Amino acid sequence: MEPRSFLQHLNPENFETIALETFERQYQNVPIYRSYVELLGTARPQTLQEIPFLPISFFKTHRVLTEGLDPQKTFLSSGTTLQQRSQHLVHNLAWYNCSLMLEFERVFGPTDQFVIIALLPSYLENGDSSLIYMVDQLIAANQNELSGYYLSELNEVQQVYEAARKQGKRAFIFGVAYALLDLAELGLNLSEAIILETGGMKGRRKELSKEALHEALKVGFQVSKIYSEYGMTELLSQAYYNPETAIFKTPAWCKVLIRDAYDPFSYVPDGQKGGINFIDLANQWSCSFIQTDDLGRLQNDGFTVEGRLEATDIRGCNLLID
Question: Is-contact 245 300, C-beta < 8 A?
Answer without folding.
Answer: yes
